[in-house]
Design goal:
The complex is a heterodimer of chains A (about 200) and B (about 240). With about 200 residues, chain A is an alpha+beta fold. Chain A has 3 helices and 11 strands, in the order H-H-E-E-E-E-H-E-E-E-E-E-E-E. Chain A has one domain: lipopolysaccharide transport protein A fold.
Chain lengths: ~200, ~240
């Protein structure tokens, strides 16, 4: 009797595990984010600019043509996204056409008050300018907890009189300022500026 | 040619040119013996032990790149422009050569906050005009002000080749580490002793082979000097 119950219990647990495995959400975080946009936005901003202050001084700003705010913590942006921030005295810029940002807040009110960025995605003609170098790609993801910007798409890095093309994405450690490119890398360094 | 003679000459710290080598080739073979063609794989019989200096002065050898017999270009001398109809292009100036585009290829790249430095890894190929460096790893330094490559340090399975229309001027060099100084237009090739590796760098130009702990090659003059030389041979093309 006990043996039979054990066998049935094991089979039931196995069936549940199989069900969970096949029923899991296989969408990427970005896809999950986009599917959440099926709902109507609670707040809609057009031609907006956000400013971030450090004390009395602005040290970052972000603008876009359209901003859609979804409960509880998602912001979707479209059209001419442009961000600038000063870090360690250097200007860093980001441009793209579409962006999604996830904040740690549990409501839009909290997001507006002191929203902390958890993860952000930018896509379509993504151009970042970091320390005099341009990074061009089609999609990038920023993970705030690790301060890492990464992509699996092809990337082109344009520096003063040099160009590097990477086939298989990149990882940029924002804090340590280390850029790692993988896949086939091809570069040209010439005496002529390439900007 | 008796390799022993050459090794002794090299160990004495004398500079030796291919012209001098040709003169040595003209020497009669030793009495009672036959002239045995040396091969690139055959080490010199009386080579000094690697890692030890054979004399009080460092063993240093240099090979020039003569374009005709009897001509011995001096270090730092600029190559003569090619003659019309000789098949050679007019020689570019040093400034033009170092401004030639440098092509880089690898399977990984890492750039740190160290300004103007890029590290390449795995199947690295660095090419500038007729010069090519292949290795496992490379560190490329840029001259930000001049917008050009300052130097390239390549390590691991290093192979340096310099193509030339004249087969005698073609260079194939191997070693464990090489530094390409683009500004000075020279390459220093090193052998790094490791387990199962004697740490010998080797350079082959035409039919001449040079082995040593460190080989310096000037790209524009073709001047070669060797530290800790192991042997210089001229395989083939022998007079019997």
């Amino acid at each position: 009797m006990i043996k039979s119950a054990t066998v049935w219990g094991f089979l039931l647990a196995l069936a549940l595990a199989v069900g969970v495995f096949f029923g899991r959400d296989r969408s990427t975080p970005l896809e999950a984010l986009k599917s959440s946009s099926d709902r109507s936005a609670r707040v809609r901003l057009e031609d907006f600019v956000f400013y971030r202050y450090k004390g009395q001084a602005v040290n970052a700003n972000f603008s876009a043509k359209l901003g859609l705010f979804y409960e509880p913590n998602i912001v979707e942006m479209h059209g001419n996204l442009h961000g600038e921030q000063y870090r360690r005295g250097k200007l860093e810029t980001l441009r793209s056409e579409i962006g999604h940002a996830i904040f740690s807040s549990n409501s839009l009110n909290a997001l507006m008050r002191d929203g902390t960025l958890v993860r952000a995605y930018v896509e379509d003609n993504v151009i970042m300018e970091l320390d005099g170098n341009l990074l061009k790609t089609e999609q990038a993801e920023y993970i705030a907890s690790r301060q890492i910007l990464r992509s699996h798409r092809a990337i082109r890095v344009i520096g003063p009189s040099r160009v590097f093309d990477g086939d298989d994405g990149f990882t940029y450690d924002v804090d340590r300022e280390v850029l790692t490119m993988s896949g086939l890398i091809q570069g040209v360094v010439s005496g002529q500026p390439r900007y | 040619m008796d390799n022993r003679v050459i090794s002794i000459v090299l160990a004495s710290g004398l500079w030796l040119s291919p012209v001098a080598l040709a003169d040595l080739d003209d020497l009669d073979p030793p009495a009672g013996g036959t002239a045995k063609p040396a091969s690139t794989s055959e080490p010199a019989p009386s080579k000094p032990p690697v890692g030890s200096k054979p004399s009080s002065t460092p063993a240093t050898s240099s090979l020039s790149a003569p374009t005709k017999p009897g001509a011995k270009p001096k270090p730092g001398a600029k190559p003569a422009p090619g003659k019309p109809g000789s098949g050679k292009q007019p020689a570019a100036t040093d400034a033009q050569r170092k401004k030639e585009p440098v092509h880089l290829r690898s399977k990984g790249l890492r750039a740190t906050r160290e300004k103007g430095v890029v590290e390449l890894s795995e199947d690295v190929v660095v090419t500038q005009a007729e010069l090519q460096l292949k290795s496992d790893h490379a560190k490329v330094s840029f001259d930000e002000a001049a917008d050009e490559v300052k130097q390239v340090i390549v390590t691991g399975n290093v192979k340096v080749t310099k193509d030339s229309p004249d087969p005698k001027d073609r260079i194939v060099a191997t070693g464990d580490e090489a530094i390409f100084y683009n500004t000075e237009r020279k390459i220093t090739l090193k052998g790094v002793p490791a387990k199962g590796n004697k740490g010998i760098a080797q350079l082959v130009r035409g039919k001449d082979t040079v082995k040593g702990k460190q080989i310096h090659y000037e790209l524009d003059t073709g001047w070669i000097s060797v530290d800790g030389v192991e042997g210089v041979m001229q395989p083939g093309d022998k007079k019997h």
